[in-house]
């Protein structure tokens, strides 16, 4: 079976499981715009100035579909219930769309950043965030993406989307961010 | 454990009598002035030994009064209570000049006297004597020849000698601490004297920094930086500032823990899936050696003092609990039995017990466990206490907590009786590490 066929079959199966869930409605925040720091420039340890490089590769790798607000690919957050590492049905279409993008763009590379709420220690939460990122990665691999295309990492509780200390803030912070190389 | 207001002698004497209100007011007054740590003692100290540190002869000729730093160190340890000896006339400067009965009537059990004078070569001679007023014995009589830049370090050394002579345990006033500060999006790894003075920034980053850990000899520091948009473990020399990524594998690299010989680090890597424990060389390069395989999370390793085993946190049993791994034969034993969340183990010096973080009904607390009796003692009230760092003499635990919506550092005695809050001005402080005895 060709990879595309296999992919199509898996998508079909996944869609069945997801009961044709539509676009998630409670996924609030837009894509984070961030400056990418170079490998040597992020931290200043010796007085040397590290240069910031701004991402410019996106257009080469896929054009505007990743940024087009009307395209599901522009949505980059998968959110999780408390103490949960299961990708909920409402995010399946989103994960599938990104997996499909990876399959059709073999050169594309992505980082899945796992995050937790503030409850728990810094280091233990790194492991919990990793579990979330790994869950999304596993689903994408199942949908045909290549292992080499996806690096799953964790920020634990270090990069909250919402700095608040209540359940609403925590719900926004338990997430996996999807970030393409060059963004 | 903390820093004082150098130029406010009034407060230096009055602070321990005053309450939180004065301290808070002072913090407001001086906020923005310096990024140094400040402190207040919250409780305890009833068993403190009364000690009189007499102003040293000749110290008024120098910009920093050594006796004030010594007295501050001893008082903040919670084990000593200052008795004013400044107005005793004539003021004694040597052990022989101490009128013991006079100090006894003022309630002092011990007396510290000393003197300073400039030598012909420009250096300064500092001498001090420690007199046990109860046993009427001279316990220490020492002379240091130093430069003016070494005044503060000399004062901490004198305090260490006094602390050890009177308690039988080494003092930690000459040690250093490390911690992470955050101001806006600026994260810094700083190192300071144990009293919070002399803070130096050794890493500055727009991205988070966590888990600083002094090497056993204090010459290097390991930490986790997110500057590459993922956690990577670095080891940085404190001598020349050079650093090396010692764990920068695909996926997440975190939770560094030094082996007692300083040659290796246990780290948590996700490169082979999940979060698992590995050993890497502290010099960088080389392979990562996997310590074991488990289906769950293994992380937050900490070597036991003998280097033969390590403590770690794992959810292999369903909830996060602390386990012990014997590296030689791979044997694993569960350490914590009660509660649904026990993590961040740090073995006590000597290895007879540990300090850890437990979460109980949503409240995170610092606690100790005795390995023999399995008895658990909560040291702090929570609700968000974490990152315990044990003083090298095992008497105190520095940890990160929250107060008034800010991240602060605090210290608690190992028996939980004395707690000190250490706030930094106008910034968030967290993730402390305590350096070794030097």
Features:
heterodimer, A: alpha+beta, 4-stranded mixed beta sheet, 5 helices, 33% helix, 13% strand, B: mainly beta, 5-stranded antiparallel beta sheet, 42% strand
Short description:
The complex is a heterodimer of chains A (183) and B (438). Chain A is of the alpha+beta class and 183 residues long. Chain A contains five helices and five strands, in the order H-E-H-E-H-E-H-E-H-E.
In words, what does this structure look like?
Chain A has 5 helices and 5 strands; from the N terminus they run αβαβαβαβαβ. Chain A has 183 residues and is α+β, with helices and mostly antiparallel strands. Chain A is globular and about 40 Å long. Chain B is mainly beta and 438 residues long. Helices cover 12% and strands 42% of the residues of chain B. Chain B has 5 helices and 30 strands. In chain B, a hairpin with a 5-residue loop joins strand 26 and strand 27. In chain B, helix 3 packs across helix 5. Chain B is elongated, with a radius of gyration of 23 Å. The N terminus of chain B is likely disordered. The interface between A and B is large, with 34 and 49 residues.
């Amino acid at each position: 079976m060709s990879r595309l066929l296999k992919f199509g079959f898996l998508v079909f199966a996944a869609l069945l499981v997801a009961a044709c869930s539509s676009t998630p409605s409670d996924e609030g925040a837009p894509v984070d715009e961030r400056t990418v720091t170079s490998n040597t420039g992020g931290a200043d340890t010796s007085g040397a100035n590290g240069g910031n490089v701004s991402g410019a590769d996106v257009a080469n790798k896929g054009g505007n579909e990743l940024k087009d607000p009307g395209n599901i690919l522009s949505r980059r957050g998968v959110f999780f219930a408390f103490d949960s590492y299961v990708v909920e049905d409402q995010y399946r279409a989103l994960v599938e769309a990104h997996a499909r993008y990876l399959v059709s763009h073999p050169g594309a590379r992505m980082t899945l950043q796992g995050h937790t709420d503030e409850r728990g220690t810094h280091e233990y939460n790194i492991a919990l965030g990793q579990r979330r990122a790994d869950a999304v990665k596993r689903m994408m691999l199942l949908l045909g993406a290549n292992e080499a295309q996806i690096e799953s990492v964790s920020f634990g509780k270090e990069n909250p989307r919402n700095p608040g200390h209540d359940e609403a803030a925590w719900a926004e912070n338990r997430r996996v961010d999807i970030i393409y190389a060059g963004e | 454990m903390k820093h004082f207001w150098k130029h406010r002698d009034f407060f230096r004497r009055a602070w321990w009598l005053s309450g939180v209100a004065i301290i808070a007011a002072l913090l407001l007054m001086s906020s923005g002035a310096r990024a140094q740590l400040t402190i207040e003692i919250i409780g305890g100290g009833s068993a403190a030994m009364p000690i009189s540190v007499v102003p040293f002869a000749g110290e008024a000729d120098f910009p920093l009064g050594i006796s004030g730093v010594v007295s501050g160190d001893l008082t903040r340890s919670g084990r000593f209570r200052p008795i004013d000896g400044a107005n005793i006339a004539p003021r004694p400067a040597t052990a022989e000049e101490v009128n013991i009965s006079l100090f006894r009537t003022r309630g002092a059990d011990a007396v510290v006297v000393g003197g300073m004078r400039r030598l012909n070569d420009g250096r300064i001679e500092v001498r001090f004597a420690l007199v046990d007023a109860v046993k009427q014995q001279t316990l220490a009589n020492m002379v240091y020849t130093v430069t003016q830049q070494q005044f503060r370090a000399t004062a901490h050394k004198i305090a260490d000698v006094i602390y050890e002579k009177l308690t039988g345990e080494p003092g930690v006033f000459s040690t250093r601490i490390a911690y992470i500060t955050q101001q806006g999006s600026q994260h810094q790894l700083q190192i300071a004297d144990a009293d919070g003075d002399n803070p130096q920034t050794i890493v500055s980053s727009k991205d988070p920094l966590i888990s600083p850990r002094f090497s056993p000899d204090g010459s290097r520091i390991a930490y986790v930086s997110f500057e590459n948009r993922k956690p990577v473990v670095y080891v940085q020399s404190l001598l020349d500032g050079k650093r090396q990524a010692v764990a920068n594998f695909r996926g997440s690299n975190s939770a560094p823990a030094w082996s007692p010989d300083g040659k290796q680090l246990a780290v948590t890597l996700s490169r082979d899936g999940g979060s698992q424990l590995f050993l890497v060389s502290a010099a960088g390069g080389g392979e990562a050696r996997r310590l074991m395989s488990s289906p769950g999370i293994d992380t937050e390793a900490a070597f036991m003092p003998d280097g033969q085993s390590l403590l770690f946190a794992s959810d292999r049993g369903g909830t996060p609990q602390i386990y012990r791994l014997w590296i030689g034969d791979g044997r694993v034993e569960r350490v914590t039995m009660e509660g649904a969340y026990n993590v961040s183990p740090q073995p006590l010096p000597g290895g007879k017990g540990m300090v850890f973080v437990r979460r109980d009904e949503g409240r995170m607390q610092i606690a100790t466990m005795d390995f023999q009796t399995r008895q658990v003692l909560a040291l702090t009230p929570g609700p968000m206490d974490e990152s315990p760092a044990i003083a090298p003499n095992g008497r105190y635990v520095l940890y990160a907590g929250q107060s008034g919506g800010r991240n602060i550092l605090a210290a608690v005695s190992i028996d939980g009786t004395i707690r000190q809050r250490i706030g930094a001005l106008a910034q968030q402080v967290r993730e402390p590490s305590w350096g070794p005895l030097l």
